[in-house]
Amino acid sequence: MGDPSCIFCRIAAGDIPAAKVLDTAEATAFLDIGPLAPGHTLLIPRQHYESILDVSPAILAAVAAELPRLARAIINATGAEGLNVLLNTGASAGQVVPHLHWHLIPRRAGDHLGFRWNAGRYAEGESDAVRSAIVAALNA
Ligand code: 5GP
Ligand code: ZN
């Protein structure tokens, strides 16, 4: 099982080293090799899914179920005040490794780890059209 060309499959299988913090039947978590802050952790399904677009809901639920205790452990261990949980999907959204993963990034006031959040505004009627399109896609 696993894609031998996928770095995270190889980490899940133990074929290449990683600083693992958690291993379950469905999930594994390990320190990001390029941390945005000490304790920056990646949580992944052991099975290969490229992104949230192709994972099964059951696997996603099993892996996501680890988020609360992992988040608490990271906060307790690092003394962080908060945490960002981030899931990048696709290259345009910053996904570099094509194996589904959550980033858990410890945060504290004044850490200057800001994300650009350029909030926009809908034009008159635009949100109705966008909402309708999403609802139609959900029901397709
Ligand atoms: P993405 O940009 O795909 O959301 O995030 C990929 C993350 O994986 C990056 O933050 C990067 O530092 C991390 N990463 C890439 N290769 C390795 C590796 O071989 N080992 C570990 N521990 N992290 C990795
Ligand atoms: Zn993989």
Structure, described:
It contains 4 helices and 5 strands. It is of the alpha+beta class. It has a 5-stranded antiparallel β-sheet with strand order 1-2-3-5-4, covered by helices on one side. The longest helix has 14 residues, at 126-139. Zinc ion (ZN) is lined by residues 3, 6, 8-9, 48, 99.
Primary descriptors:
single chain, about 140 residues, alpha+beta, 5-stranded antiparallel beta sheet, about 20% strand, globular, binds guanosine-5'-monophosphate
Bound molecules: guanosine-5'-monophosphate, zinc ion
In spatial order, strands of the major sheet run: 1-2-3-5-4
SSE order, one letter for each helix or strand: HEEEHHEEH
Helix content: 25-40%
Alpha-carbon distance between the termini? 32 Å
Runs with pLDDT <50, length 5+?
none
Oligomer: single chain
The overall pLDDT average reads 96
Structural class by helix and strand composition: alpha+beta
Q: State the major sheet.
A: 5 strands, antiparallel
Basic shape: globular
Structure summary:
The chain is built from 4 helices and 5 strands; from the N terminus they run αβββααββα. It is α+β, with helices and mostly antiparallel strands and 140 residues long.
